[in-house]
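Posting for a labmate who doesn't have an account.
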Amino acid sequence: MTGRLSKVDIREASFPEDEASVSALLGDYLRQTEAEKGDHGLAPRAAVLPDRYAREISDPEKSLAGMRVLVASVDSADCGIIVVTRTAGASEVKRFWTTPPARGHGVGSALIREALRDASRPVRLSVWDWREPAILLYRKLGFSPAAPWDARDRLLFFELA
């Protein structure tokens, strides 16, 4: 992929049709996140994901029930996912991932913009402080630093009013 892609298709995940794709994208995201936490000394390097993550991958329909799940694809290849929860008067981005080849081509921007279109305000999210490209994207989209709601080290918190 070079430059901005001409056509990013975004769809609401449908189960069981999208189960394999959602599982694969979530699996890549969670394995990468756990590896990065190990690299930054926040968790021991483990060959197996924690149970809570393994369940999310093995049964995304059940694990993500009640959440909005959007999948991005380019040329019929799924390359991004975002999961948004709604609570009383707010939304939270719980998962946001694009495959490495899709990064820098507008896939993530298209995906998050579509998710924000129907999200209740404010929209909150947390991101590890080493994920600089994601942080830059959030700021570009208007997210501002927010008070923490989780005590884990190295998490940054943002909100979009």
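Reply:
Got it, the structure tokens are right above this. The longest helix spans residues 19-39.
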